[in-house]
Amino acid sequence: MYISGGSGRRSRRIQVIRNTCTRSGELVTISGVRLYFRNHFLKSLKFRIIFLFVAVGIIPCIVLKAVILESYESRAVDVLTAQLQNQCTILGDQIGAGGHLDTGLTEALEGELEQLSSIYNGRIMLINSQYQITEDTYDLDTGKMIVSEDVIQCFEGEGTKIYDPDNRYIEVTSPVFVPGSEQVAGVLLASVSADAVIDSLDVLNSTAWVAVGVTALLVAALAVILGTVVVRPFARITSSIEAVSEGYDTNYLHENAYTETSLLSEAFNKMLGRLKTLDDSRQEFVANVSHELKTPITSMKVLADSLLVQEDAPVELYREFMADLSEEIEREDKIINDLLSLVKMDKTASTLDVKQTNINDLVEKILKRLQPIAAAANVEVVFESFRPVNAEVDEVKISLAITNLVENAVKYNVDGGWVHVALNADHKYFYIEVADSGIGIPQEAQEHIFERFYRVDKSHSREIGGTGLGLAIARNAVVLHRGAVKVYSQVGEGTTFTVRIPLSYVV
Predict the structure, then answer these.
(1) How many folded domains does the chain comprise?
(2) Pairing state of beta strands 418-425 and 429-436?
């Protein structure tokens, strides 16, 4: 019995848990829908355009309705009040002219009083100078005293009017003057119903709300159509941009529906062109790396195979081949080191070891280190400094850039040539100029010389041991310092590289 009971309780607990999980899943689904609606639809341009159109279309209608109804109410009350005051003034003049305040109203005046009360569905009372009600069309308060602010003000010669929409009545007072004088002998107090005005106002209000509702529907429908049409070009742009993730499309984007879409199209096309260029450069770089690394290995394999097929090769031949193998290994090592330098620069772009450095001393150290290479090539190196220069730089990377520029100027020079290195600065930048009397660079090749593995003269580059990475390394080092490097060259007349780097490094 205990086990059976336990099983029952477990079953009930499992059922409760399932129901709870089901309700939790429903709550998660509802929450997800709400989150998507809030984060996507409410922030979409289409929703905001629709909302703007609806607001612009409906809010003026509501404001106009309120203004019209208020104007109608005010105008209707003014007209009714003016008519009532005019009738009371006429009747008061007749009462005052006959002196009926003291003698009492004639049957004709009483009839006119009753008729006026009936026409306006109201109550009219005649009050004498002692504030006593002498006539009351309702026959309720005749002979009683009435003292009110409006009556007192009217006895001073100025009629009053009151409109009370909550109690739905209009009340006016009109003075009764003593014949031939400005003295007020009595007051006519008329209270009439404002039901006609308020009922008409309610009908107009209902009609106006119907008109506003119909207008709102029309405006909303128009807003949805216009919103869809307006954002359609942006949807096409979005589709084109999403297509980039699947592969570069050969067709560029041409969406000229608006000025903004034209600008977006131009920016997208520039980005797409840049991405294609980068992709082509990446593929070319991979191919060049494979080729450059494979060439020394192929040479080493040929040399090794040549030695293996010769059983009794002389020692001199072994030494010659081993020397060639050593050169190829050294070339392979240099290519790998240059590649590692490029990769290291790419990875440490945000972690430069920037310090205040004396650029004059730095350049002198570099030129002193390269002096043996220049002497071996019979090239004279001259350094000219126009002023002391101190700047915030990463000494290792700037040294690498200057070394590559000067070493290239020495290697690609003529016998008995010269290399001129100049250092100058202004208030914001320092400038390093490396000029040589070398072979020069053709005009069509100058825009490619900073590309990795690019060589102007491949055969001559291999003779002097170039890897095609020196200028790429130099440019990367300068760019990391927010600087720029430019080249000016003519074939047979030499080359000049100009480097500009900020004196203060800004992240």
Answers:
(1) 2
(2) antiparallel
